[in-house]
Amino acid sequence: MKPSLAVILSALALALPACQREAPVADTATAPAVAAPAPGDTPVVATETTMAQAGVQPGPGAIDSKAFAGKFNGSLPCADCPGIDETLELAADGSFTLTDVYRERPQGTSTLQGTWSADADGKQIRLDPGSKAERDRLYAIEDNDTLSPLGADGERVEGAPDMRLKRGK
Fold this sequence. Notes:
The chain is α+β, with helices and mostly antiparallel strands. It has one domain: Beta Barrel (Lipocalin). An 8-stranded antiparallel beta barrel has the order 1-2-3-4-5-6-7-8. A hairpin with a 5-residue loop joins strand 4 and strand 5. The radius of gyration is 25 Å and the shape is globular. The termini are far apart.
């Protein structure tokens, strides 16, 4: 007696799942804490919150984002105006507002909003406007009261005048 097609298909449906390999279980003691981003992906900057969610201890020099929040002010150079008065407000909830006032320009005020995060070693912060039209901005953390804007490559701008934002009111 030959088995029917329905019986054969049922047997295959039951047998195939048993043949699949199980994914290996990562050893948390030796596995990396955070996977490296794929080429072309924007890396996610670890903060105290994201690291805690992943069960990772912050590295030496990590900052407490809530305690670091505040308002920073400074004057930056401008290629075609007398200068830019910049105010950066970092909120404890991880949001930011960056206001640039271009001196001697009618309607010379621009405002950018989004989220901010600190890197794991507490050396810089990233402003993410959450828009493809605007690029992320990086600032070096000089000390608890001083930030310095960085270039898109994360490096200090060579030959630029002293550009610093100081904690203010």
